[in-house]
Specification:
Layout lengths: L5 H23 L3 H33 L4
């Protein structure tokens, strides 16, 4: 029913590592604004990947409890 693909977990972990590296480099270089923008961009990408799974979860809960 709700199958979470393991590759999504690895993609999210890789994204988090990449964003963390960019954030730390930009923060140390004194580019705080760019560091925060990078962090927000990473968060937006992660949400775009996760939101379909959350919608599937809500559909499954709705069907289990027969809420239409």
């Amino acid at each position: 029913m709700l199958g979470v693909d393991v590759s999504l977990i690895f993609k999210l972990a890789a994204l988090a590592i990449i964003i963390t590296i960019f954030y730390s480099f930009l923060k140390q270089a004194g580019r705080d604004e760019y560091a925060y923008m990078t962090m927000l961009a990473g968060l937006a990408i992660a949400l775009l990947w996760v939101i379909p799974l959350i919608m599937d979860l809500f559909r499954a809960v709705r069907s289990v409890f027969q809420l239409y």
